[in-house]
Amino acid sequence: MPPRRRTKVHPTPRSNEGRTKSSAPAAPERLNAATIDLAVELGARAPLRLERPVVVASGPLGFGAEAATLIDLRDVGLFVVRTATLTARRAGLPPRLVEVPGGLLHAIDRENPGIDEVIQRHAPAWRDTACAVALSVAAGDTAELKRLMRKVEGRGATLGIDAYELDLTAPCDALDGAPFESSLDEAARLIDAAREATELPLIAKISPTATSVARLVAHLADAGADIVSISGSPVGFLPDRARRGAALAAGSGRLSGPLIRPLALAAVAEAAQVGALPIIGGGGIGSPADALDFLSAGASAVSVGSALWADPGLPGAIAESARRAAASRGAPRVTDLVGAALRDRLRS
Ligand SMILES: Cc1cc2nc3c(=O)[nH]c(=O)nc-3n(C[C@H](O)[C@H](O)[C@H](O)COP(=O)(O)O)c2cc1C
Q1: Residue list, ligand 1 pocket, CB within 6 Å
Q2: Mean pLDDT of 240-266
Q3: How far apart are the CA of 304 and the centre of ligand 1, in A?
Q4: pTM for the full predicted model
Q5: Which of 152, 192, 294, 327 could join 31 via S-S bond, C-beta 3.0 to 4.6 A?
Q6: What are the two backbone dihedrals, phi and then psi, of residue 322, each rounded to the nearest 5 degrees?
Q7: What is the mean pLDDT of the chain?
Q8: Does CATH place domain 33-92+111-238+256-347 in 3.90.1150.10?
């Protein structure tokens, strides 16, 4: 049980003589960081419980087993596996990843061997994972999505899957390959199809450059999403000056790393003000302080991706730092930090 906040007793001054009147609020009483509750429950319909407010983003750490050798999954609340599709997808031609100032530009090819083989090879690792697991899926249309989900449905517990993440940054057939997130209707249609197919919690993943984030999140909530993850990579392009072509063989690609963080924070704050869905926020988180910024902008949990390659200890450091931040504010739960920047702004 979380410890109760103790009420600070201020000595009552006998007289106001010699005192200046101050409007500054009393500093909150510091709590013992070890007693802070780190758990979050996301979504109202079928809450997804994360023991830590830290999510490993889909992709950079693969399908599961590899991740356990790199990072300590006991420090993580949710591991999102690399995106699976109905049939196998090959990686495109190299170069597929280039460095840009402040981050990476990459072609997310959603390379995977198809859902049957993903399950066969990786489900044993999911069942043994120390944190919750979300299966990330992508499809070009609702029929393909339903066929994909039928292969998983009813087997969530056996397979070790606690939630789905739907990648709305993926290309939509009806939009000639533009991402689902660029159309309120197409994005909502895909979520609606997924909602019909499953009782498991549904996370809708979008990027900060999705169409009108606030309206999109409201549409996703109406269509049946339980959680929105605003942590996807926005589109980027870099010319190859020497070859006069594009730096990536695929032409344009997706951006990850610190350069997308301010964009992501703005989108999180926008969605938080609507309040339609609990938010997993991320994009460019490279330090505990970055993660606290996302909580403060209104995310209930933070997503960490490419930074894990350089700093596998980041999830543990984020959890510890969130604990200390809550303790210093006299807040017994890390969830009390959520949206602090928005509240402070409203107050000022
Ligand atoms: C190598 C690589 C592979 C990725 N693969 C996927 C993927 O399969 N599905 C997905 O939804 N996002 C994928 N992403 C995007 C990440 O999940 C994340 O949204 C993005 O990298 C932004 O977070 P970051 O700046 O913390 O890395 C990938 C990113 C990278 C760098």
Answers
A1: 57-60, 82-83, 104, 106, 108, 110, 136, 167, 205, 231-233, 256-257, 260, 282-285, 304-307
A2: 95
A3: 9
A4: 0.92
A5: 327
A6: -65, -40
A7: 91
A8: no
